[in-house]
Amino acid sequence: MVEERAPAGVSRPGDLPARVTIYEVGARDGLQNEDTVVPVDAKVEFIHRLLAAGLPVVEATSFVHPKWVPQLADAAELMTRLGDSGRDLPVLVPNERGLDRALELGCRHIAIFGSATETFAQRNLNSTLDEQFAMFEPTVTRARAAGLDVRAYVSMCFGDPWEGDVPIDQVVQVGKCLFDLGASQLSLGDTIGVGTAGHVSDLLTAFNEAGLPDDVLAVHFHDTYGQALANAYAALQHGVTTFDASAGGLGGCPYAESATGNLATEDLVWMLHGLGIHTGVDLPALVATSTWMAGVLGRPSPSRVVTALAPGTMPA
Length: 316
Ligand code: HMG
Ligand code: MG
Prior knowledge:
Elements (H helix, E strand, L loop, with lengths): L20 E4 L1 H5 L9 H13 L4 E2 L2 E2 L12 H8 L8 E2 L3 H9 L4 E7 L2 H8 L5 H15 L3 E7 L12 H13 L4 E6 L6 H13 L7 E5 L6 H11 L3 E4 L19 H10 L8 H15 L6 H6 L7
Parallel strand pairs: 1-2, 1-9, 3-4, 4-5, 5-6, 6-7, 7-8, 8-9
Helix pairs in contact: 2-3, 2-11, 7-8, 8-9
Bound molecules: 3-hydroxy-3-methylglutaryl-coenzyme A (HMG) and magnesium ion.
3-hydroxy-3-methylglutaryl-coenzyme A (HMG) binds next to helix 4, helix 5 and strand 6.
């Protein structure tokens, strides 16, 4: 059963949207950060179950250098196994080599991922802040010429483990440059989860003032400091309607030590359905999927909603 209605007698605050899009990143952002490599069979099942649970967008994997992220070195095999059903699932692509690999497999949606800070650009992309644009520019141009849709991520929007605070102007400048390469959407990443609600509103307002309206913005919160759901609510109130989240709260970034799991999709769905906002997600089916994946990984899900709805189903 799809549970999307607010509890009886509770109405949706008038200024909130009637529906939002959840962009599911568990198979990519989640599994890229696991100590063990999840077998490709389990990844295929995970993605099929996420789609069956009603997630409208499921990011599948990354065509990055396999030595940089060995957990996703099976990207080509995974996309081949997914066949037609995989072609509309977004995949991360950092450069032209990654694009070639994605094109060979018929992928129709790619995501580039830039950094708002110098240090993370070097650590995550082996490039400087400025050089990253030279890497992305031909990648996006060729992707668009081939008819692909391109999403752009910008990381370290709210703070950086090496550089500390990141000025809003700097984030907007980098984000706008990435978007203007030819992206249809810009996802604002709180890679290490340090952001708080007022900062979210200020950053979104600054992007609006720079000419990027809410309907091309997405938010991507990691939950390191327990702020992800409050930050999602702040973004919702601001007018954002695309939210990245990860089933079961899987996630992190192997090149940002303090990055922990993403906002759990179940926690987000619980809040949205409680507000009477349509997501299309079947929450019990999603919880069952995350509980199953927790079994594959051998550890409980950090999601509060998964824990509440599927108690006692995990190994101690
Ligand atoms: P590099 O070593 O500088 O690459 O890595 P290069 O261009 O110098 O090439 C060296 C060799 O790598 C060459 O092979 C290339 O062909 C090969 P050789 O000629 O020596 O045999 N190569 C590739 N092979 C396969 N696929 C490729 C590829 N590119 C080059 N795509 C590179 C530069 C960007 C590739 C590397 O730094 C990299 O792979 N980084 C990815 C790191 C990553 O995936 N991080 C996690 C994702 S970002 C994230 O999680 C944040 C996000 O969630 C948002 C948020 O939370 O903020 C999105
Ligand atoms: Mg992330």
